[in-house]
Amino acid sequence: MVTQALPGSQARRMQTINGTRPPGLGIRGLKGIVLLICCALVVVPFIAVVATSLADQRQITEAGGYVLWPHHPTLAAYQAIFRGGVVTRALLVSVGITAVGAALSVTVVALLAYSLSRPGTWGQRSVLMLILFTMLFNAGIIPNYLLIKQLGLVDSYWSLILPTLVSAFQVIIMRAFFLEVPTEIIDAARIDGANELQILTRIMLPVSKAVIAVVALFNAVAYWNAFFNAVLYINSSEKWPLQLVLRTYVVNNAAVGGDLPGEVLPPQHSLQMAILVVSLVPICLVYPFLQRHFAKGVVVGAVKG
Amino acid sequence: MMSALDTRAAGRRSPGTPPATHPEPRAARRQSSWQRFKRDRFLLLLGLPGVLAVLLFHYIPLIGDIIAFKDYRPYLTIWESAWTGLSNFGVIFNGDPAFLNALKNTLIISLLQIVLVFPVPIGLALLLNSLLGERIKRFVQSILYLPHFMSWVIVVALFQQMLGNAGVYNTWAGSHGLPTLHIIGNTHLFYVLITSQVIWKDAGWSTIIFLAAISRVDLELLEAVAVDGGGRLRQLWHVTLPAIRSVIVLLLILKLGDVLTVGFEQIFLQQAPVGQQASEVLDTYVYNHGIVDGDWGAAAAVGLVKGLVGAALVLTANKVAHLFGERGVYASW
């Protein structure tokens, strides 16, 4: 949608751009350099992190801490952190929370959005107002913390999943999508004798696979990245998700590998960078999908009117 | 973000369009509330888990806000704690220095974000739009959008690794005899650090909304400018910028409505090395004073007032957007 070529104008754009001559070499070169710098600012940190996580002790020492290209790539750092210490555990916790949270969240949100998308449902406007209001006013950290404490969820994985289960924004987006499904189809199905459950499972869900996948991924990224709820609610370090481990060992620079069995550990730096890589790789894996669909979703939601 | 929230467009019929089709629209109107409740019971059941989650995690905490008026002690329940009237709000109205400092930092960081961060995606979007090759454009976009999906922990970690005192840049600069940087952990440059992190993370992603607006610019108008002898700068000034002005105004107003909230996780992660004087903002104040120091009542009071003022600002901003002829977020309010 963003980059969509406009039919008909494409040919004209090739010779003249909207009627003006193409910019000179100097201007084009300048633009190229600016964009190259922007891209480098984004990409270089990732390269340095990945390269350092793969580099061996000697090269890291020689380079003074970081390398941009490993001469003798080694997976020693990854083998060390996956040997069953705190990082392995945190990774499992994060994967679990992400999977359960995203699945649960998209289910609840989709059902709520669906029930709010059928015209004339009892209490629909009140519920919509109830949901919209949550975007306007938040009780704040203290009452939220007290609630979790009262519910006995402190130090429970559920404290990382339940509070962010329903996002008003997602309900609104999904509801808008369901509303776009032509009512004729639904009415036809009803005339053919379908009940509400069949309408949902046979018509609504199949046509909205894409939006459900997008919302599920959106939530997966959010759960994977969530950090502060774990600071608030999780006390025991063996229940830490990956983001907390990342903060402790990389941001706060605690020594990695104290709990690891064994001989000589790879350099601290490689271990830290390996933790960083492990926490950002899943995002990079789903990124192509995210980029395509999120960009579309944001735009459709944002500037359609 | 805007039209999606327009409850009227979706929920209620707008006057011009025919009524939403319902199996028996007339009968439905005559049905009593109880009959409609019974008729819709299956749909209501589907929505129930979501409604319960919203009530439990967004509305029950509102009750918890009463501890702002109490002397809450963790070993007592909320109900058992003694009422203290408005004394918890003293930190705000009597101007507790720590609170004022948090307010000052919040407002300065917000202002910096409006002045320095806000224009970046606009410029970037114009630059991207002016690229000739679609492929290059898409490639650059896919690189620039990536940081948006990284958690703040990752962003902060990356910044430390790059710009830290023993980071990539300083290591490289040191070995090449160039001046080294001391940004991380430097109290004087904390605002600069925070601002540049926000730009790094979100400037690319924020171009989407502007690119979409630019893509709807009328090509005929652009060509008309060219026919009249205007160059690209004139096209930009007289056609493109006016065309995206409404989006710019709208986003700017929304940003103004949000001035009391600045990246909580981002700042929380970086408080330790620079100290609270330089880094405390309202949200971290609430956390540090309430949950860390145990001054629950005062922290809840600050949180409550912040929430109320924030909501008032958003609604005001929304009204202002309407005055500017924009639709605003809460179009039906």
TrEMBL record, chain A:
Ubl conjugation keyword on record: no
Principal location: membrane
Subcellular location: Cell membrane
Transmembrane segments: 33-55, 91-114, 126-148, 160-178, 210-234, 271-290
Residue ranges of every copy of the ABC transmembrane type-1 domain listed in the record: 91-286
Matching Gene3D superfamilies: MetI-like
Keywords: Cell membrane, Membrane, Transmembrane, Transmembrane helix, Transport
Pfam families found in the cross-reference section: BPD_transp_1 (PF00528)
InterPro entries noted in UniProt: MetI-like, MetI-like_sf
Membrane disposition: Multi-pass membrane protein
The family this protein is said to belong to: Belongs to the binding-protein-dependent transport system permease family.
PANTHER family from the UniProt entry: ABC TRANSPORTER PERMEASE PROTEIN MG189-RELATED-RELATED (PTHR43744), POLYGALACTURONAN_RHAMNOGALACTURONAN TRANSPORT SYSTEM PERMEASE PROTEIN YTCP (PTHR43744:SF9)
Name listed for the protein in its UniProt record: Carbohydrate ABC transporter permease
Organism classification: Bacteria, Bacillati, Actinomycetota, Actinomycetes, Micromonosporales
